[in-house]
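User: Can you help me understand a structure? I only have the sequence.
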Amino acid sequence: SFPLIELAHQTRQVVRGDPAPVQGRGSREIAELARSFNRTIAELTAMRRRLAVTERIAARRELARQVAHEIKNPLAPIQAAVETLRRLRDRGDEGFDEYFDEASLTVLSEVRRIKQIVTEFSEFARMPKPTFARIDLREVVRSVVHLHDASDSGGATVVLQSEEISPIIADRDQLVQVVTNLLRNALDATRSLAEQAKIEVSLRAHSSSSVEILVRDNGPGVSPELADRIFEAKFSSKADGRGFGLAIARGIISEHGGEIMLTKPATPGSENEGAEFRVELPLEGPPKLARSSATDGNNDHHG
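Assistant: Let's start by predicting it. Here is the structure, written out as tokens:
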């Protein structure tokens, strides 16, 4: 009967993450089934929200522990430099003046490192809930690419290829951050190549309901054994990397109902094979249930 067909349709909507209450029309059994269905939807939505909050709290605790450990690393050379200076001064050592320059440079360098860790951790932890609006993604990507090509390329050639695409529902500022993080990642990877470095950014329709951003570089690439870890918070393959950039990008894209992935790990033994990252975004934003969970889960950002 028609009420059962409607109920089946709503069940499929729940599976897709976009549930809506159903009206129980028809027999008393159908009406009771509809009420039970609606109660289940409400419980599922509440559970999803609680789970999102719990996961965020657990992730933050682990991240705070890791950041505390990370800050201890630069504190060790600072302490060693200051203690050495004190010993040299106390015994009137002639090497004090000579060592002072080296020690002060060490302290200043490590203080800058601590400030960078704190800044990037704050940026990662803040992660405000997205403010969705209809935006021109081509304009967003073009502005970020042109900014980096003009001021931060380090000699690298940054090329943009863009198809005509429909405006999408997304948070403009957060997508600026995603594209910026991917470009910085590519620029860092190709820094040693100087003018031979090349970065390609492509924007195109992926399907009738989604768009795709590709960022490719001709750097050393990412080894297969590291490919599964590069989106983890606090993981970085660079000596001076803090490991937040790709983690931030993944969090933003996830809240937008999209996907981000490394599509081209390096072949063992190869040189300058490059890396390719792909971002897929839905044209109409995330499913309503995902957006509801994101709203609830972000309530603890200001606490």
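Now, to help you interpret it: Strands lie at 133-135, 157-162, 168-170, 198-207, 210-217, 259-262, 276-282. Helices lie at 2-15, 28-90, 96-126, 137-151, 172-189, 224-227, 245-255, 288-297. Let me know which part you'd like to focus on.
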